[in-house]
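Bug #77: duplicate submission created two jobs. Keeping one. Sequence:
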Amino acid sequence: EVQLVESGGGLVQPGGSLKLSCAASGFTFGSYWMYWVRQAPGKGLEWVSGINSGSDNAYYADSVRGRFTISKDNAKNILYLQMNSLKPEDTAVYYCAASRLSYLTINTTRYNYWGQGTQVTVSS
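Kept job's structure:
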């Protein structure tokens, strides 16, 4: 059974940091591109970041570039998202997702597996 389980969300003040984790099981994690996608209240899905299967190339949406860092530990089957300098507009449910495609795609409908999401709230 494929599982993606996110953790690490919570309430943080503007300017603060959080590190999200996504534990994967049930598929060959090292062969998949991995992604973070978020959904703010009342809005659609927004692609945040992606990393290739070998974890040596990372990509970011303009809205988070320079503040967020994605990483992938293929030995532990865990995906991470380090979020710094958080802003109120980063408030959303954050999902990790996996794709069999061997290239970057920000089309979230092409992702094969999804986690249940973790809530991040940035507020004073």
